[in-house]
Model the fold of this input.
Amino acid sequence: MNGPTELGETPPRVVLYSRPGCHLCDDARAVIEAVCAELGERYDEIDITGSEELTRSFGEEIPVTFVDGRQHDFWRVDPVRLRAALA
Done:
C-alpha cells in the first residue's frame, strides 16, 4: 500500500477499494502491484470497513478498482486490461 499523497504530488492513477481478510482483494493487489511497478505508476488502497458509505457502495463488489477516477473492475483485475487502461 502506498502512503499519503504529498502536497502538489499527482494522485495515484489506480485506487483499490478492499477490506481485510478478502482473498480476492489479495489477488487484485498482487496484479495491481505488478502492473504499476512495471509501468512506473503508483496506486492507493482504501479499506472500505472504515466508512459506512464505502461499505454500502462497494460491499458486495470488493475488490473494486478505479483508474483515473472511473470504476475499472470489480472482483478480479485483468493485468492486460489494466495495462491498456494505463497506456
Q: What stands out?
A: The domain at 20-86 is CATH 3.40.30.10 (Glutaredoxin). Residues 13 and 68 are 5 Å apart (CA to CA). Strands lie at 14-18, 43-47, 64-67, 70-74. Helices lie at 23-39, 52-58, 79-86.
